[in-house]
Amino acid sequence: MMPVAPGVHWIRMPIPIPGLQFINLWAVEDEGGWTLIDTGLRSRRIQAYWEQIFAGPMAGRPVVRIICTHFHPDHLGLAGWIAERFRVPLWMTLGEWSFGRAIALDERDAVPDDVMAFYRRLGFDEAALMQYRERGFNNYRQAVYEIPNAFHRMVDGDTIRIGGHDWTVMVGRGHAPEHACLYCADLGLLISGDQILPRITPHIGVYPTEPDGDPLRLYLASLPTYRPLPADTFVLPSHNDPFRGLHLRLDQLAQHHEIRLAALMAACGQPKTVLELLPVLFRRELDTRSKFMAVGEGLAHLHCLMAEGRMKREVGADGVLRYQSTARAVDAA
To answer: For burial by CB atoms within 10 Å, which of 151, 155, 290, 293 has the most?
Structure first.
């Protein structure tokens, strides 16, 4: 545990995600103990690390509350275990708690036919689909401890008193349904979760649970939410290192996606599948497993363009979806 501000401590835990390696978690000194913000993936290794922290740096003082920014397993994974261990409440937004719990409770083992059909429409061949099927269904359930069946709801604009300071809940969208960030004006801190990251961009993707979703527009529309915060706000993200320069980073994130949108429009003079468009978005060579995640990002950008009338979609004779820039997009270019 490393102090980053009065009463606020930084904990870094490992995660087996290529390119990330670690997640940042936060422990805030609170009345009677500690408030934890995010918990890490479910694993015996990380549970053992927590036990060391509980007995060591936390000086035997109990956890009194758990706050999870969103439902992804590297954030929510051990919340149920810690809540059970200390008999304390889990605080989340309704969208994050309910979405995570719904996925975790899906008991099917085999990959459903509609999921396979979703990826077949994107152009994956049968060999790739078989590889996907062999990975099994609902790995999320394995990555999270049982999610508590009761929680304390956080709502955008709520004020939470933690350690003698007021923290404001600021909800962002796109990366997750109702991602909660926490801002403390007294300390000049924003715990940004995955919503605002300093060096990488948050993953924003379309998946079979919401095949026609438009998460990128939600994400871009939520970025101005953080613009009123002071320019020198100290941002505590879930990945990479804490940083200053919030306003510049907001500009960079918006610009990054605008560049990608423009590149897709330029590449779609003729109908293309999302798989054919992946080299436009990703410079590195992608293996089959990575492509299933990458097409989610590709779809998020294509759906954003479709909603703005700059892209159209058609189904080919082979049943595969293809995308083409509209005359409106060509005229704008």
So the answer is: 151
